[in-house]
Amino acid sequence: KGMFVWAKLPAGKLAEETIDALLYEKHIFIAPGTIFGTQGEGYIRFSLCISEEKIKEAIERILNVEF
């Protein structure tokens, strides 16, 4: 069991392309919604099963800003 956040991607963005970019450019692993079925396209899923410090670090990497 775990806690997760589902995020809707902007129109035209594909889940698998988005997670690949985040993995290779920002070193963040998240799940594409497509692994849960075709209705998951256009969504990505973040796990919250890590420390708050690691979540903040991931947000900083994505946004390229510091808190």
Characterise the protein shown here.
The protein has a three-stranded antiparallel beta sheet with strand order 1-3-2, with helices on one face. 36% of the residues lie in helices and 18% in strands. The model has no long low-confidence stretch (mean pLDDT 89). It is globular. The chain has 67 residues and is an alpha+beta fold. The N and C termini lie far apart (29 Å).
Helix content: 25-40%
User: Pairing-aware structural class of the strands and helices?
Assistant: alpha+beta
Q: What value does the Rg take, in angstroms?
A: 12 Å
The share of residues in extended strands comes to 15-25%
Task: Report the end-to-end length measured between terminal Cα atoms.
Answer: 29 Å
Elements, N to C (H/E): EHEEH
Question: How are the elements arranged and paired?
Answer:
Elements: E1 4-8, H1 15-26, E2 31-32, E3 43-47, H2 52-63
Antiparallel strand pairs: 1-3, 2-3
Structure at a glance:
The protein has 67 residues and is an alpha+beta fold. It is built from two helices and three strands.
Give descriptors for this structure.
single chain, 67 residues, alpha+beta, three-stranded antiparallel sheet, 2 helices, 3 strands, 18% strand
